[in-house]
Design a protein that fits this description.
The protein has about 525 residues and is mostly helical. Helix content is about 70%, strand content about 0%. The protein has 3 domains: about 5-160, Alpha Horseshoe (Serine Threonine Protein Phosphatase 5, Tetratricopeptide repeat); about 275-365, Serine Threonine Protein Phosphatase 5, Tetratricopeptide repeat; about 370-515, N-(1-d-carboxylethyl)-l-norvaline Dehydrogenase, domain 2.
Length: about 525
């Protein structure tokens, strides 16, 4: 039953007015509005008639028609409480918070202890962004009302008072089931505050809501709980098998170490969105990882990365993946072509190669000192022959360590004289490469030197080896390079003398050790 307000305010009663009142009481709002409109034509200055016309229109949700009628009522009868209140509510519904505040403030001034004007004034202040005053108005309304609890919670949350707002959101939902969905607003606030555990706990209370389940799955995935995300994402795919949902489920499978389950999801997603670059790259990476067991998968992965570059020809990431995959599938010329394309796209060559070859078990560094890297890689083979000779003669680890340490000094000295950077020779391509070549039992050059130390002739050793000991021919080049630049290189000189001039190994050791004494 609609409350009939201000009936006593009618200055005169006509048939139209009577019919309008009957229609309002019977909730026949169209009939009511039609009769009151005719009554207004008869009595244009009767604010009571106009008020009931505005009321009828608002009950029909014709707010834009009701608003000017209420304004006319207030012209005829300024400060009329019910007109101020109703007009303020309609303006608020029309998102005109500024004007709503004018009329709702007037209503509160008329009846400061009434619930409705205080509540709607609080709502208007919240909509206008005046959160502190909104809080004040909500507190002036009925604190036991679920609507007030909800509004107060929102005003507190907007002020960053999430700890105070949270129990009010929950209390409103417990008081009135109609406010249960506002717990989702609380969950989103927790998310914004990065309190993901609290947000997840709320989302889990809405298993019947497919949109919430989808969001929950993605949130669990984003927060590192891939295994927990799977049930929600499986439900999301069942309800809505979009490419996005399938991709999220595939990601959860991958992170939970079930790539075999991810593959069909990615295939189905690619059927829906064949030009989705991220989907294509992820599918290619799964195939690439499977190639560690089945090398045929490398070729399939290369095909996926080829489709990726066809989808996005300017994508550096796609070209890098393709180049790496072509290397793994031993298509070296095509890999070089891919690297050329990466260079054309503006990425420096060292950087592109670094990204192509870097893997979780293989870390690649770059260097701008090309000459230093080349010299370090060549000269360490000569020193490795010297280290192997020390092993062949039966010297211990200390002797070899001293030999290699002094050799580092002359490699760096010669490299700097040639124009290389000194720090290069203490890096991976210098000291790092030198250490493994001099001390590894698998080193070809160290093994070559060990046989020299045992008395075998260099040419016979080289002829018997299936692999190449690069230090043998390099010894001559290193010796000549040192003479060209006038650099003292005692270790390189003695290796050269043993290998290229037939010097006795024992004599070479004596000559090396009998050099003049000096500080390090």
């Amino acid at each position: 039953m609609v409350p009939l307000l201000l009936l006593a305010l009618f200055l005169q009663k006509t048939d139209y007015q009577a019919e309008g009142l009957k229609a309002l009481e019977a909730q026949k709002y169209e009939d009511a509005a039609r009769n009151f409109a005719k009554a207004v034509e008869e009595f244009p200055d009767d604010y009571g008639v106009r008020f009931h016309l505005a009321l009828s229109l608002s009950l029909l949700n014709k707010d834009t028609e009701a608003i000017p009628v209420y304004k006319k009522v207030l012209e005829l009868q300024p400060g009329l409480y019910q007109a101020e209140l109703n007009l303020g509510i309609l303006l608020l519904r029309q998102k005109d918070a500024a004007q709503a505040l004018v009329h709702l403030t007037a209503a509160v001034e008329k009846k400061p202890k009434e619930f409705r004007p205080n509540y709607y004034l609080a709502e208007a202040r919240l909509a206008a962004g005046d959160f502190a005053k909104a809080e004040e108005a909500y507190r002036a309304a009925d604190p036991k009302s679920a609507a007030v609890m909800s509004g107060l919670a929102r005003s507190l949350a907007k002020q960053g008072k999430l700890a105070e707002a949270a129990p009010l959101f929950r209390q409103a939902a417990e008081t009135d089931a109609a406010y249960r969905d506002q717990l989702l607003e609380l969950a989103s606030l927790y998310e914004a505050a990065k309190q993901f555990g609290e947000a997840i706990a709320i989302y889990e209370k809405f298993p019947e809501n497919p949109v919430v389940r989808e969001h929950l799955g993605n949130l669990l995935l984003q927060t590192g709980r891939a295994a927990d995300a799977i049930p929600s994402l499986e439900q999301a795919v069942e309800k809505s098998p979009t490419a996005a949902n399938r991709y999220a489920l595939a990601a959860a499978y991958i992170r939970s170490n079930h790539p075999e389950k991810a593959e069909p999801q990615l295939q189905a997603a690619l059927q829906l969105e064949p030009k989705n670059l991220e989907l294509r790259l992820t599918y290619g990476r799964i195939l690439r990882d499977q190639g560690k067991v089945d090398h045929k998968k490398y070729l399939a992965a290369a095909q996926e990365f080829l489709r990726a570059v066809q989808t996005a020809p300017e994508s550096l990431e796609s070209w890098r993946e393709l180049a790496g995959m072509l290397v793994l599938s031993e298509n070296y010329q095509q890999a070089i072509n891919a690297l050329d394309r990466i260079k054309q796209l503006g990425e420096e060559t060292a950087g592109q190669v670094q990204k192509v070859f870097s893997r979780p078990s293989f870390r690649v560094y770059t260097s701008s000192d090309l000459l230093g890297v080349e010299l370090g890689g060549a000269l360490k083979n000569v020193i490795a022959i010297a280290a192997g000779t020390s092993d062949g003669l039966g010297f211990g680890d200390n002797s070899k360590a001293a030999l290699v340490t002094r050799a580092i000094v002359e490699i760096r000295r010669l490299g700097v004289a040639c124009g290389a950077q000194p720090e290069t020779f203490t890096g991976l391509s210098g000291l790092g490469d030198l250490m493994v070549t001099c001390f590894s039992k698998h080193s070809r050059n160290r093994g070559f030197g060990e046989r020299v130390g045992r008395g075998e002739k260099p040419d016979d050793i080289a002829a018997s080896m299936l692999a190449v000991a690069e230090g043998y021919p390099t010894a001559r080049s290193a010796y000549q390079l040192a003479r060209k630049h006038g650099i003292t290189t005692p270790v390189i000189d003695e290796v050269y003398a043993m290998l290229c001039q037939g010097k006795n190994v024992a004599q070479a050791v004596r000559d090396l050790m009998s050099r003049g004494l000096k500080p390090e």
